[in-house]
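Exam revision sheet. Question 4 asks you to relate a sequence to its structure. Input first:
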Amino acid sequence: RALASSPYAYIGKNAKKKTEAARTGSDTLPASVIDNSLAVDAACSGNPGPMEYRGVYLRTNEEIFHFGPTLGTNNIGEFLAIVHGLALLKQKKLTMPIYSDSKTAISWVKNKKCKTLLTQTEELFQLIERAENWLKKNSYSTKIIKWETQEWGEIPADFGRK
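Answer key, C-alpha cells:
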C-alpha cells in the first residue's frame, strides 16, 4: 500500500477505470478548470468509519489511484489523497496541478502535519506518518488548487455517496 507505487500510475495510459462522470457522459469541466490535472477526493462512512480515497485525471476522467477502505475519517482521507497525488506526480516527473475540495486537508499538507484528533489504528498511524515524512523530506512545485464545489459542482473524483 505504498503512497506512490500504484500499478495505474501512468496517467492516461494504464488507468484503472473511468469514473462515474465519464460513464454517464457528464464529464464537461468549467472553462476555468485546468483539464491537465489531477482531482482527489475521499469518502468515509461514519466518523470515524471505513475511509477510502482516489485520484482522477481530469482530461479523461480515469481513476489513477485508489486506496482503501481502512478505518479513518474523511479529512484524513483527503490529506492522504493529496500527498499520494504529490508523490505520484513527482515520481513520474509530471507537472500538473492537484484539485481538492478540502480546505482542511490543503492546510494540513501546507503545514506538513495531519492534525487529526482521531485515536489512530496501527495501519492508519503508519499511513499518516509516511505521508508527513514524505512532505518533510520532499519539495514539490505542484500547485494544490481548491475545488470550488459551489461554483463548479462536485469534484470529478467524488464517490457520489451523498
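Marking note for examiners. The radius of gyration is 15 Å.
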